Amino acid sequence: MVNYIDETISALADPTRRRVIEILLTGPHRASEIATGVGVSRPALSRHLRVLRNARMVDVVLSEDDARERIYQLRRDRFLALRAWLDQVESFWKDQLESFQAHANRHGLDDQE
Amino acid sequence: MSLADSVIVSVDVELAPEAAFRVFTEEIDSWYRKDRHTLFDAGRTLHLMFEPFAGGRLLEVYDLSRNEGRELARVTRWEPGRLLEFTDNHETDIKVTFDAIDTGTRVTLVHSGFERVAEPERASVRRYGWTIVVEWYTEYVSFSGQST
Fold it and tell me: Could you report the predicted ipTM of this complex, rounded to two decimals?
């Protein structure tokens, strides 16, 4: 368990791998697209992708157009925690602003006069 | 899947922008929902207030005689009737704009700064962004370590 966390953190500690994650946050990409986006050679990228796969943060899927082509995507479950957190932030502010709205419409007109 | 890099929420109120800004700031104690999830110490908080200037604090006031307590956020921009910005204790940014519309004011809140996942340059300047994500990640992995 501890080793697994260490593995994850160290996988994320590298700037190139964080760039890979950034690209994959926008959706699945071909290895060639990732290499171009990150600005590294294909062999270098392969090493980084291997680390991310070993850390179980990235999956390989096969292209529908071309079964030989590898497409990489983030493992959704690994990022659901982040998504859930953002949803919580949104619902927190929605609550607060609705309360502000109710208060402003109830009492605010007094201020304006 | 994609992840938004900010949270945006807006409401319309039946007030002019100047009044909406004033109610938002001066009367925050009257409208802000206060409980143990939204405050550090709901039990001790007597009052919530903005110090009305850039550099001022959003305070949980524990001592009414001195208006002192715990800082919830720090005001970075204070432009009455237009714009309020503050930075919370996690160093994330909250920007509130007040735009005139036919029926009053549209108040839009943008909360950002928590998703600098892959910006190493920025992470070195604002280290917290990356640190926070790693913390969430670590927590998440701790909880879900059994899954494959």
Answer: 0.76
Which residues, including other chains, have CB under 8 Å from residue A34's CB and lie 6 or more apart? A20, A23, A24, A45, A49, A72
Residue with tokens 């957190």: A85
* pLDDT, tens digit (0-9, with 9 covering 90-100), for B112-123: 876 443 333 333
Which of B:82-141 have CB within 8 Å of A? Answer: 107, 109, 111, 114-115, 117-120, 130, 133-134, 136-141
SS3 of B21, please? Answer: helix
Q: Is A55 on the interface with B (CB under 8 A)?
A: no
To the nearest whole Å, the CA of A10 is away from the closest chain B CA by: 10
Closest Cα to residue A63, out of A32, A102, A21?
Answer: A32
Q: Tell me the average pLDDT of chain B.
A: 77
Low-confidence ranges of chain B (pLDDT < 70): 1-5, 37, 90, 114-148
Write the DSSP symbol of residue B51: -
Strands A58-62 vs A70-74: parallel, antiparallel or unpaired: antiparallel
The strands making up A29-30's β-sheet, listed across from edge to edge, are A29-30, A70-74, A58-62
**Res B22: pLDDT:** 95
Q: What is the mean pLDDT of residues A68-87?
A: 72
